[in-house]
Amino acid sequence: MNVGVLALQGDFREHLAALAECGVNATPVKTAEEIKSIDALVIPGGESTTISKLAKSFDLFDLIKSRIASGLPTYGSCAGMIMVAKSIKDPASGQETFGGINIEVERNAFGRQVDSFEEDLEFKGLTGPKFRAVFIRAPWVAKSGEGVEVLSEIDGHAVAVRQGKVLATSFHPELTSDNRIHRYFIEEMCNK
Ligand code: GLN
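# glutamine complex -> structure
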């Protein structure tokens, strides 16, 4: 299995390191050929407007969108969550998403005062202690539609969701040494 980490912008190196620690073959991807050849995709944290623009200007947008729609196991963290959402509340002008999960996300939802914070989360399906999650100008799920399973929430706002082969988190497990979410993705979305 070859997991591609979308390497247009954002913290793709950290995802590559986390996946390598989980013992899977992970490579950065940024060409159509590379994206056609992968068995799973990770979309990193970063800036969703930039990822969206670069995917369009490199002519990758429709390819990624259609690979996800045809069942490519995909995990998006933070900006990556925005990219796999069906829609964005108040999107930037022209900002589009690949889709994959039937959710509407709100960008920078936690507000300026709490630009960045850490929280110990219950995460459905993970065993062991709570997951120490790092949030940086994070989105939350404003609405989730049919077929979406909420895995974790803060004050009633979903911050981790799954649907079919797609997983999304508002936070950045790639920035901590706890690889349980990456393992969850591999076991639940890629190996089943
Ligand atoms: N606020 C960013 C966006 O809207 C996401 C931030 C992040 O990935 N840490 O794309």
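# post-check
The first helix runs from residue 12 to 21.
Residues 45-48, 78-79, 82, 107-108, 136-137 surround glutamine (CB under 6 Å).
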